[in-house]
């Protein structure tokens, strides 16, 4: 408001110069007025800088608060919700925050704050030059209607260009992720064509909308000049009729710019409001989604690792029913194999046991505790999981290993790597544990990355280890070594292995067969192996002889 009031200063100065200085020759008055104007201008400069800073701070606060809420929220979203959005969609949500910030601290906020100036200018025009007031009112009306007309994106709460830019981003991210696959399979032309058509659509829409906005801007500019001419014309007629003075006309010419400028500026700033509005709706939807429970303040004792499923059903949001009223017990201790055909629901069962998915119906207990009460952080301490596909962070190997257990000393890291079989190949690398890997572990083979994933799991030393096809990328020798290790770990821990391997299955104490119709059969390997593989356990163990003839407990296993 003070800035708006100070905005009247040039007009009042002009009016006084004409009425008191030019017509009466008052040089002393002029000096005093110039001194006064300079003081007020200094005040206005100070106020404007304060206002700009307040807007900047508001923008930065919104950015900081929403970014943190989004990052915390994302990491506390249940796995199913996380999986629903791709990495590029999450990235776009972080970019949406920028749209909110630029709306608050950008030109739109400033022109909205300047709107009171328009009202004050109108009042002053009414006092000093009432004959031109109707002209300015009509001009305001026309500019307001046009500003609203051009604000179609705000009215429909949809920015088509952003929709298309997001689709394009998603396509680009997918091509970047699949760059090697595209090269290997040789269908890069097809992928490029589909990307190009998305790009052309976005470019055409962006070009069209930018043209519309340029049009709005240029039209407003010309209209402002036209209204200024209209004010001078009507003012000149009013002076001839002796209804107002020349000084008033000169002042009113400046005032009309103050009254109409903020409205004309709205037209070119609408887009940032439309973008911020869209971004806010999207962010709000994500921030309102339910999160996993907070970490417990009271820490229950480390579980022994006995699972009990009571009438557990699970279906995906798509409606696919993976498990239906399954009841079973598992552990504590020992190796337990989950078997079944592709797509039967083995990984789904493993994720339920790890607490990564919540049953749609029924309950899962670990020891005597209902798992639903625990946060992911609590469960992560007790139930370690090696998923079918895990991500390896770029940077030195040692840093990524320390990330999972920052308190682990070097000895513990060596032991975990020896157990997983990673130590031997890391030692052969020229940089050893300091070797820097690329994104996703680029620079190592799939089997080597698998061993590093196992090392991370061992480093956490959970009560329960859930491994989804741990030996899928391992050579025979490495698989044998891993099986020996798992046998020994299973003396004190519960080891659950999702597998297609007869060797692994033959070592289990108990086998769970996920049938694919929502049911799970289970029994001893003596009963299940002939049914599933058509071989007796004895024959199977003979095949996996190296694993079963594990020597006395390895020293490394004792230390985890
Ligand atoms: N996020 C998801 N949304 C919808 N359906 C899913 C999702 N993840 C898996 N499914 C479906 O659930 C079923 C079970 O999947 P799951 O990954 O548990 O199979 P699996 O037995 O581990 O298979 P594989 O041996 O091939 O690894 C599959 O038919 C799959 O299509």
Summarize the structure.
By secondary structure, the protein is an alpha/beta fold.
SSE layout:
Elements: H1 2-6, H2 9-22, H3 27-76, H4 79-84, H5 87-105, H6 107-113, H7 115-128, H8 133-150, H9 152-156, H10 160-177, H11 179-185, H12 188-240, H13 246-287, E1 307-315, E2 321-330, E3 334-339, H14 346-353, E4 361-366, E5 369-370, H15 376-382, E6 383-386, E7 395-396, H16 397-404, H17 410-420, H18 422-428, E8 436-437, H19 446-460, E9 464-468, H20 476-489, E10 494-498, H21 502-506, E11 510-514, E12 520-523, H22 525-533, H23 537-543, H24 545-548, H25 555-559
Parallel strand pairs: 3-10, 3-11, 6-9, 9-10
Antiparallel strand pairs: 1-2, 1-4, 4-5, 7-8, 11-12
Helix pairs in contact: 2-3, 2-13, 3-5, 5-6, 5-10, 5-13, 6-13, 7-13, 8-12, 8-13, 10-12, 12-13, 16-19, 17-19
The protein binds adenosine-5'-triphosphate.
Adenosine-5'-triphosphate binds at residues 83, 316, 318, 320, 322, 340, 342-348, 388.
InterPro entries: AAA+_ATPase, ABC1_TM_dom, ABC1_TM_sf, ABC_transporter-like_ATP-bd, ABC_transporter-like_CS, P-loop_NTPase, Type_1_exporter
Subcellular location: Cell membrane
Protein name: ATP-binding cassette domain-containing protein
């Amino acid at each position: 408001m003070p800035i708006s009031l100070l905005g009247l200063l040039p007009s009042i100065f002009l009016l006084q110069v004409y009425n008191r200085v030019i017509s009466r020759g008052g040089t002393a008055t002029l000096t005093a007025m110039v001194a006064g104007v300079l003081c007020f201008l200094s005040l206005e400069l100070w106020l404007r800088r304060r206002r700009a800073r307040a807007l900047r701070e508001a923008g930065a606060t919104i950015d900081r608060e929403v970014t943190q809420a989004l990052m915390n929220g994302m990491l506390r979203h249940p796995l199913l919700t996380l999986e629903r959005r791709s990495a590029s969609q999450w990235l776009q949500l972080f970019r949406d925050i920028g749209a909110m910030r630029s709306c608050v601290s950008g030109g739109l906020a400033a022109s909205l704050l300047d709107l009171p100036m328009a009202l004050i200018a109108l009042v002053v025009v009414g006092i000093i030059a009432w004959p031109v007031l109707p002209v300015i009112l009509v001009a305001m009306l026309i500019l307001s209607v046009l500003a609203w007309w051009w604000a179609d994106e705000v009215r429909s709460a949809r920015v088509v260009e952003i929709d298309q830019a997001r689709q394009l981003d998603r396509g680009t991210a997918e091509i970047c992720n699949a760059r090697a696959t595209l090269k290997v399979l040789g269908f890069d032309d097809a992928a490029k064509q589909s990307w190009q058509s998305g790009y052309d659509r976005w470019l055409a829409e962006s070009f069209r909308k930018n043209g519309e906005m340029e049009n709005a801007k240029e039209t407003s500019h010309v209209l402002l000049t036209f209204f200024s001419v209209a004010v001078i014309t009507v003012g000149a007629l009013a002076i001839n009729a002796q209804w107002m003075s020349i000084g008033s006309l000169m002042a009113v010419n400046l005032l009309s710019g103050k009254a109409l400028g903020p409205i004309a500026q709205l037209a070119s700033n609408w887009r940032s409001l439309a973008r911020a509005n869209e971004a806010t709706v999207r962010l709000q939807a994500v921030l309102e989604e339910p999160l996993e429970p907070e970490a417990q303040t009271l820490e229950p004792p480390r579980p022994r690792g006995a699972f009990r499923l009571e009438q557990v059903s699970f279906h995906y949001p798509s409606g696919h029913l993976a498990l239906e009223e399954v009841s079973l017990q598992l552990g504590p201790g020992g190796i337990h194999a989950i078997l079944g055909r592709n797509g039967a629901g083995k990984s789904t069962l493993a994720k339920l046991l790890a607490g990564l998915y919540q049953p749609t119906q029924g309950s899962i207990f670990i020891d005597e505790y209902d798992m639903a009460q625990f946060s992911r952080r609590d469960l992560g301490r007790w139930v370690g999981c090696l998923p079918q596909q895990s991500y390896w962070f770029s940077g030195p190997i040692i840093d990524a290993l320390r990330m999972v257990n920052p308190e682990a000393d070097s000895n513990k890291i060596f032991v975990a790597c020896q157990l997983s079989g990673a130590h031997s190949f890391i030692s052969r690398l020229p940089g050893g544990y300091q070797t820097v890997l690329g994104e996703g572990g680029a620079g190592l083979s799939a089997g080597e990355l698998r061993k590093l994933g196992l090392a991370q799991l061992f480093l956490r030393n959970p009560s329960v280890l859930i491994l989804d096809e741990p030996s899928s990328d391992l050579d025979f020798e490495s698989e044998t070594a891993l099986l020996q290790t798992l046998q020994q770990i299973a003396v004190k821990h519960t080891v659950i292995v999702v597998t297609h391997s007869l060797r692994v299955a033959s070592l289990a104490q108990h086998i769970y067969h996920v049938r694919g119709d929502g049911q799970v059969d289970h029994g001893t390997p003596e009963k299940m192996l002939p049914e599933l593989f058509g071989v007796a356990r004895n024959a199977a163990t003979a095949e996996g002889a190296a694993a079963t003839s594990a020597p006395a407990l390895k020293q490394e296993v004792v230390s985890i």
